[in-house]
Structure formats: C-alpha cells, structure tokens
Amino acid sequence: MQPFDAAQDLKDAPRTGGAQRPKDAATLILTRGGDRPEVLMGRRAPGHVFMASKWVFPGGRIERADFTAAFAEDFAADTARRLEIETPARRARALALAAVRETYEETGLILGRKAPPASVAGPWREYRGEGALPDLSVLTYVARAVTPPGRARRFDARFFMAEARHLLHPEHTAGSGELDEIAWLPLSEARTLDLPAITRFVLGEIAERLQQPDRPLPFVRMVRGRHVVESRA
C-alpha cells in the first residue's frame, strides 16, 4: 500500500470548522501508453475555493440525473462486488456515471460507445447529442477517500480507472473551463506537479495497479484525528 502524506493533506485543505457531511463524488482516471503509461489530468482554475491551481483528475459531485442516466453495459463482476460492499447497486452506478459525466463536462471526452438513437434516452443532453451511451463495463474501481472533518468542502470520493482506448474520440477539448489546462502526462512527470495529497497517493496506486491489477482497494479517511489507509480486498 502506498504511503499517504497526512501533513500535505492538511495544507491542501486547512480546517475551517463546521460539521459538514461529506457529499458523494467520483473521479475518472484515464490511462494510455502501455509500457510508458500516461494519465489524463487537469489543473483547477485559480479562482476555485477548493484546491485552486492544483492538478487533479476529472471528477465531481453526484447529481440527481446520474441515477437515471442510461448506459450501454453494467459493471464487470469484480467492480460490482467491490462497490456493492459499500453502497447499493443503484448508487454505485450513479457514482460511476457521475465520474463519466464530469469527465465529459471538463474535458469533452466521452467514455462509452455509439448507440442506436432509440436507445439513447433520459438525461445527459450532451451524450444524447453524440448518440452515445456510457459503458460501465470498462471501469475499474481503484480507491476511495473521505475528506477529513472541518474542511470547507467534504467529499466521499470514489476513484475509477479506464483505458483511453474506450473513448469515442481520442482528443480532449477545453471542456467547461473548470480546468484551465488539460494534458496527458507520463506517470513519473505527473507526480512532480502541484498535487493534492490524495491525488499523489492515487497516482502511486495507479502505477502499482498497472503492474498488479488485482491489488487491494485503499480507503483513506480520518479516524479519531488521524489519517488511516485501510486495505480492502
């Protein structure tokens, strides 16, 4: 299991008081490159209240429409098993769909497949415009992290990974503007950037997982005032 930089985590998001409950959120880590792996990352715009100017993976909070969005194929068995230990199947799918949707909104990239027009129904107008359906079967669930108490923003975040070959189009766009720079980065280079502690931790996990796909899933949270990394089969 990778070490977690608790001191940096406190610098990334200092305590502000309050007792906010963490909101469900999800992130998508896109990889490509075979023996020289790269990941897609973006730099958050300077004006953000939370993690301004930090490099992150695309992602964000779950929305109501994510519970009813259509998809082409369900999770693979192992991904479904790991998620359903933590949360009901409907919410698990909504979390994954939130990661896919946020990635589209922030980068213009669609993880999914073309579908007959009659099957593309429901919310997610942009996906419908592309005639596309998200494909949950290509996602791997790789990590979970809960923002410590007392922060300005708190998230219960699930991290999913998928290979770039499953994208409908290979090139990203400017997206929504939430990320002011988007780039494919070699794993070794990505770890030298200005990153939140959890992003650095997950990058290390990705490097290990690309070599050992069945490694345990890490869960990072704070327990009795101390950061804890649990390992889950």
Structural account:
There is one protein chain. This protein is of the alpha+beta class. The chain has one domain (6-232): Nucleoside Triphosphate Pyrophosphohydrolase (Alpha-Beta Complex). Helix content is 25%, strand content 28%. It has six helices and eleven strands. The strands form two sheets. Strands 1, 2, 3, 4, 7, 8, 9, 10 and 11 form a nine-stranded mixed beta sheet that branches. Strands 5-6 form a two-stranded antiparallel sheet. The longest helix has 19 residues, at 89-107. The model has no long low-confidence stretch (mean pLDDT 86).
Total count of helical runs of at least 4 residues: 6
CATH architecture: Alpha-Beta Complex
How many discrete domains?
1
Main pleated-sheet profile:
9 strands, mixed
Task: Based on Cα principal axes, name the global outline.
Answer: globular
Helix content range of the residues, please? 25-40%
Determine the structural class based on helices, strands and strand pairing: alpha+beta
Average pLDDT taken over every residue: 86
What's the gyration radius in Å? 17 Å
CATH topology: Nucleoside Triphosphate Pyrophosphohydrolase
Multimeric state: single chain
Span between N and C termini?
Answer: 12 Å
Which segments are poorly predicted (pLDDT under 50) over 5 or more consecutive residues?
none
Encode the helix/strand succession as letters: HEEEEHHEHEEEEHHEE
Indicate the proportion of strand residues. Answer: 25-35%
Query: Superfamily at the CATH H level?
Result: Nucleoside Triphosphate Pyrophosphohydrolase
Query: Could you give the count of β-strands?
Result: 11
CATH class: Alpha Beta
